[in-house]
Amino acid sequence: MLWVRRHVARELGVPLDESSTKALAFLASEDSAKTSFENFLRGTAEYEARLKRWETERKITPDAPKPQALDLPGELLVQALGLDGGNTGDQLTVELALPVQPVQTNGR
Questions:
Q1: Do residues 29 and 36 make contact, with C-beta atoms less than 8 angstroms apart?
Q2: Cβ neighbour number for residue 36 with a 10 Å cutoff
Q3: Cβ–Cβ < 8 Å for 6, 21
Q4: Which of 37, 56, 104, 105 has the fewest CB atoms in 10 Å of its CB?
């Protein structure tokens, strides 16, 4: 984390001896960086929307787990990549043109 703090300080133009000041103290350890990122995520509109969906879901399923802020980036990435299972509108077909017959295939 010391390297990260120094790199951020350098990018921000903060002298290296001041890189451990209060402004960059959240980079002192992995735990403090994680806590800082989690606090940031809790303040985003995306997390607020996820909390509202959870409140609605709890009316039907009272034991539904509260969404974790640190799960949000992964959920957004899955949605952005179209891997969420709900996006069935697109289809991709790929054909291989090989110079020889394949040794083994799944039959398709």
A1: no
A2: 13
A3: no
A4: 104
Residue whose structure tokens are 């697109």: 90
* Residue 19 pLDDT: 58
Distances (CA, A) of 7 to 12, 59, 69, 87: 9, 47, 26, 39
**Which ranges in the chain belong to alpha helices (H)?**
2-12, 30-42, 45-60, 72-80
pTM: 0.64
CB atoms within 10 A of CB 9: 20
How does 62-78 read in b/e, with b if 16+ C-beta sit within 10 Å?
eeeeeeebeebeeeeee
- pLDDT of the residue at 30: 92
pLDDT-derived band at 35 (thresholds 50, 70, 90) equals: very high
Q: Does the pLDDT at position 40 exceed 90? A: yes
C-alpha distance across the termini of the chain, in Å: 49
- Can you give the length of the chain in residues? 108
